[in-house]
Amino acid sequence: MPQKYFSKFPLIIYNNQLAVNITERVVIRDFPSKNNLLYYPYDLQNNERPDQLADRIFNDEYMSWIVYMSNGMTDPYYDWYMPDDTFNDYLLKKYGNTDKISSKVAYYRNNWYDDTDVITIAEFNSLPDIPKYDAFGNLYLDTAKRYYEVVLTGSNVTAYKRKRIDEEITTNKIVRYSISGNSAFSNNEILSVNLGYANTSSNVFVASVTGAGQVLASNSTTLTIQHTTGYVDSVPTGYKFTSNNSYVYGGESSSNCTVSAVYSLANNIVAAEAIYWSPVTIYDEEYERNEKNRTIRLMNPGAVDQVAQKASDALAGLL
Description:
39% strand; 6-stranded antiparallel beta barrel; alpha+beta; 3 domains; 20% helix; 3-stranded antiparallel β-sheet
């Protein structure tokens, strides 16, 4: 007999009509969600739907709710693996332009997986200390050595390789500007930054340095950016910042503002350790999330009938 999910829900009178009470929820206390012996991994094929999978595995297309429950899925559209055309439509609907999200940073990730080089003991010993500041502004020394682990030949240390550290950082740097002008920047917009610098003694303008970042927050007088590259909060050593020829420009909003002051608010990835981190774009994040949904857990068909019965009993108020 088909195990339709909503057929088990109680009926109520809603707007003077008989309706299924979809606000009810089922929690089976002894549902074996953590018992890996009852599940096996399965890689979804392109365009494979939950009802098709349930029909093939459980001989009942309506048992797709068991697949959802086994994988903690609450959104049948976006928690399920999206084939290429559906995924692209999803991105267009959410962001409007996939070209933009291919260049916009979401966060930063330790890039040990891209570094297969082995360094010598001498090279390891020469890795620099990294000056940093804690949340209270106190200076301390970190070290680049933390990104490496030993390579043993027998019981002897013969070299070093990148340590497998799965860690993420929200952003590399946060900078705030005092601004004036057209400040209609859009959230997360990519900005071009131009900072002028002058001689420290004569205050005469010399040249400009450039950088880029993404809008974190803005109003008519201040602008805060993150996910930066290049010169965004400093000028070359021996010179000082000048508001002369200092500005920020947003290509999406066509906003252009003069910069009168620069403040560094956070520097999570300093220049000396930037090589150990890689930016993850918004597109990368969405793509990886969808690919992760491709591999699901399938319940052993022999346990399905018992789980379905418990759900039915729970909705009937028998438990």
